[in-house]
Amino acid sequence: MYRYDEFDHAFVSARVEQFRDQVTRRLSGEIAEDAFRPLRLMNGVYLQLHAYMLRVAIPYGTLNSKQMRMLAHIARRYDRGYGHFTTRQNIQYNWPKLSDTPDILAELASVEMHAIQTSGNCIRNVTADHFAGAAADEVADPRPYAEILRQWSSVHPEFSFLPRKFKIAVTGAPRDRAAIQVHDIGLHLKKNEAGELGFAVYVGGGQGRTPLVAKLIRDFLPEEDLLTYVTAIVRVYNLHGRRDNKYKARIKILVHETGVEEVTRQVEAEFQQIRESELKLPEGDIRAIETYFAPPALPDRADGWEALARAKKADGAFASWAAQNVQPHRHPDYGMVTISLKPIGGTPGDASDVQMEVVADVAERLAFDEIRVSHEQNLILPHVALGDLYAVYQALETSGLATANAGLITDIIACPGLDYCALANARSIPVAQEISTRFGSPERQAEIGELKIKISGCINACGHHHVGHIGLLGVEKKGAELYQITLGGSGDENTSIGEIIGRGFEPERVTDAIETIVDTYLGLRLEPKETFIDAYRRVGPKPFKEALYGQTAEAA
Amino acid sequence: MADKVLTANRLGDGIAVWLDANGRWTEKLQDAFVARHAEAVAAIEDAGRKAFACNLVLDVNVIEVEEKGGLLRPLRLRERIRAEGPTIAYADGHGFADPAFIAA
Fold it and tell me: Phi and psi for A452 in degrees, rounded to 5?
């Protein structure tokens, strides 16, 4: 993984000391809140319902055990013993004192982490496929490019005050595990016919109050042009993005209102102007960054197959976990492990300090010291020898980290919702917990198969409800919570935005409604292999509407 | 007119607080001063502005409450959750909101 150089260390340390001075002056009353707010936000410090919240960046979701131990230490020492992993591959602490935040940032800097650009109208943490560098279907590792983008965008003088926040995601495989088509810029790393690396470039995707799927504006951009082309896109956006209306300020609205042809024309024109500038990436620089992400040497471990078979035979729970939470690695003797942060009835994405320590220990001992955070709010061990899977499972299992539900109905994405968030209109976590509990039996989950439920507590859609196979949006109606259901969303290489199925449901009825939808699906699928999303795309909303609202149903 | 109390978040740690009858900020909603007429509301609004200007608190708001069974209860769910904490078990050693208090 990337290691800070001297410049990086000096830059992050200087930033911590600058913020320490700002906090000191704020606490002494020298700076008023109106002046301080943008400064704290630039360092990831929000104010939520109950306390401040600190969002820490985990670049492209990659970290090592030392960094994970630091996250655990911060949870223990400065917070209430836990953290919340987010859909942008970051971690949030819900209870830090403002007066402690400079010390927290200094501790993070000691392990090459920070909270810069985790808020504000700038280019946010660049996200990537959580299986990067390990997946069998990968063309090339997207993280070197994410790192190049991170370095380029950090305190970029031209792009620090954009019309609105700006999110970039990169994937290096045909199967999109980074939801690139619902990002401001989505980059799909691939090879052309000549075998050269480059990107398909998508622009103008996003969720929030106006969900839009990104448009493909370049089918193949040579890798050397990455920064020039992205600069051209952000420059066009910075110039023409709407600053008059916060709700229309994202690039998706610019693309939608201006038209993709015209935006593409402007981007291409700007690109031609700067194509041969200093932003053109020298081959040597790309390869140098790539070396930081060189995969660990993975010795052949053919012995693991037999050990795995033996363990599966002896322990049924392990067999279920291995079947559900382990994906094929590009090396046949290895697997990619999903550590579910979705225990049945638990809070999606939360991990205690003890659990973080366990993950760090397992990663160090049995997984080449590599950990990832997925945008689905789970943790990943990307390189585990099949022969070590049982030991990994046993270590995780004793700490409640071996729930066998990756990709199943209880693997729910949920935003913090009204339990924490100052913007929320309704709670997300209790709804996720009730659904998880209702469908928690392994047999029932296995029968239902792949089904992604995503829950947001407000229209900002941090819980990605628009791209949930079943999406839930919490709203406030007449002072009470109400949950609107969308069906048919998907955040992968076949991205689609879910359709509102009808009038909303009160909290006490929403789990029944989900059950009705699931039972309807089970009744109409052609075979067990036909997933919920495939079945929905085949039959459309009608049978689900009828099941929920009766024959005369009308959308609310 | 619904009864009102003044709430904010404390500057140093961000914890939700309410203004009590002695002009101090308390972590307990039940100890809050209740403004029952326009003059009292104006007075707490003024106290809020001053406390904000003196950098004691931020996100200062007057919120509506009712008295029910001897307990002050915010009318909005958001404020009931602010008063009681998250409604889910979230960390060992920390309680969570009383469901009866949170319920509409």
Answer: -105, 115
Residue A175 and residue A221 in one domain: yes
Please tell me which residue of chain B has the smallest CA distance to A100: B13
Residue B14: list chain A partners with CB under 8 A.
Answer: 47-48, 50-52, 96-98
* Shortest CA distance from B92: residue in chain A: A81
3-state class of A438 per DSSP? helix
B81 vs A419: CB contact, 8 Å cut-off? yes
Residues of B in contact with A422 (CB under 8 A): 59
Residues A141 and A284 in one domain: yes
Reported pTM = 0.97
If asked whether residues A282 and A328 sit together in one domain, one would say no
Residue B87 touches chain A, beta carbons under 8 Å: yes
Best residue in B77, B79, B98 to probe A by mutation, most A CBs within 10 Å? Answer: B77
How many domains, in total, are found in chain A? 4
Q: Which residues contact A436 (CB under 8 A, 6 or more apart)?
A: A342, A344, A345, A346, A410, A412
CA distance B44 to chain A (A): 20
Q: Dihedral sign, CA of A391, A392, A393, A398?
A: positive
- Neighbouring-strand partners of residue A186: A169, A202
CB pairs under 8 A between A and B: 86
Residue A126 covered by a domain: no
Q: Which of B79, A14, A248, A29 is nearest to A4 (CA)?
A: A14
Query: Which is nearest to A154 in space by CA: A363, A4, A31?
Result: A4
Q: Is A49 exposed, middle or buried (0-12, 13-18, 19+ CB in 10 A)?
A: buried
Domain end: A263, A292, A321, which one?
A292
Give the number of residues written for chain A: 556
Q: What is the mean pLDDT of each run of 10 residues along chain A (556 residues)?
A: 92 97 97 96 97 98 98 98 97 98 98 96 96 97 98 95 97 97 98 97 97 98 98 98 96 98 98 97 96 96 96 98 98 98 98 98 98 98 98 98 98 98 98 98 97 98 98 95 98 97 97 98 98 98 97 53
DSSP helix/strand/coil, A7: helix
∠ Cα A127 A130 A132 (to 5°) = 100
Flag whether A189 is in a domain: yes
ipTM: 0.97
Q: Is residue A14, in this structure, part of any structural domain at all?
A: yes
Token pair listed for A460: 């900002």
Residue with tokens 């003044």: B6
